[in-house]
Design goal:
Layout: E1 5-10, H1 14-26, E2 30-36, H2 39-43, E3 54-57, H3 66-75, E4 82-86, H4 91-99, E5 104-107, H5 112-125, H6 131-154, H7 158-167, H8 175-182, H9 186-200, H10 205-214, H11 217-221
Helix pairs in contact: 4-6, 7-9, 8-9, 9-10
Length: 222
C-alpha cells in the first residue's frame, strides 16, 4: 500500500489553511502533516520530525514572509520542495522566488485540479511549470541579459567601442590594420584588447567576437 504524500501548509489565515487541508485530503493520496501560520513559526520548528514531501506556502505573512523564508532555507541549506500558493502573481516576484529555489508557483484563484496537478508534478518530477510561471521566467531571463548588455556598454570607452567594431568587422582586420585605421600605435590597440579581455572575461580575438555576437553588442555600439 502506497503511503500518502506528506504536505505542510504555511499561511497566516487559519480559514485558508483549514480549507486547503479539507480540499487536499479529500483528493485522496495526500496527508497534511503540519500547519504553520508564518515562516518564522515554520523555521523555528526545523528540523521537522518528519521531512515533508512538499511545503505549500503563501508569500504575504507576518514576522517572516514567503520570500524571507526561502532566503532562510537557502542560507541554511534546507531543501524541502516548496510550492508557492498566493494571490501575488507579479512576474518580478515569480522570478525572485524561482531563483531562491521554489519548485512551483500557483495562484489562489486556481482550480482544485490545477492545485492537484501542481502537487503531483512537484512530487513526481521535482517542478511544476504553468504558463504564467514560464512566461515570467523567460521575461526575467531576457531582462537580466538586457541589464548585462547595458552594464557592459556603460563600461566600454568610445575608443574601445571603435576597436570592438573593427575586430568584429567582416573584413577581419588584423591588429596592425586596426592600429592604422584608428591612427594609434600597435601597443595602444593591444591595450584596448587587454582591457576588453578583462571586461568580457575572454582570452582571444575569437572570444571577443563571440562575446559581442552573443550579446548583440556590435549592433548596440553603432
Amino acid at each position: 500500500m502506497q503511503l500518502p504524500v506528506s504536505i505542510i501548509l504555511v499561511d497566516d489565515h487559519t480559514i485558508v489553511r483549514k480549507g486547503l487541508r479539507t480540499l487536499i485530503e479529500s483528493m485522496g493520496g495526500y496527508m497534511i502533516q503540519g500547519e504553520f501560520d508564518n515562516g518564522r513559526h515554520l523555521t523555528d520548528n526545523i528540523p521537522l520530525p518528519i521531512a515533508p514531501q512538499l511545503i505549500i506556502m503563501d508569500i504575504a505573512m507576518p514576522l517572516m514572509d514567503g520570500k524571507k523564508t526561502m532566503e532562510w532555507f537557502a542560507e541554511n541549506n534546507i531543501s524541502y520542495p516548496v510550492l508557492i500558493l498566493t494571490l501575488d502573481t507579479s512576474e518580478k516576484t515569480i522570478v525572485e522566488l524561482f531563483r531562491l529555489g521554489v519548485r512551483g508557483y500557483i495562484s489562489k484563484t486556481c482550480t482544485a485540479q490545477e492545485l492537484k496537478q501542481a502537487i503531483d508534478d512537484i512530487v513526481q518530477t521535482g517542478y511544476y511549470h504553468n504558463e504564467f510561471m514560464i512566461n515570467a521566467l523567460h521575461r526575467g531571463i531576457r531582462e537580466t541579459e538586457d541589464d548585462r548588455k547595458k552594464k557592459i556598454i556603460t563600461h566600454i570607452t568610445e575608443r574601445e567601442k571603435l576597436f570592438l567594431q573593427l575586430v568584429c568587422d567582416e573584413k577581419e582586420y588584423t591588429y596592425d590594420q586596426i592600429a592604422d585605421i584608428m591612427d594609434v600605435h600597435r601597443r595602444t590597440v593591444d591595450g584596448y584588447r587587454e582591457a576588453l579581455f578583462e571586461k568580457f572575461n575572454v582570452k582571444s580575438k575569437t572570444g571577443l567576437v563571440l562575446f559581442a555576437i552573443k550579446y548583440g553588442l556590435v549592433a548596440h555600439l553603432t
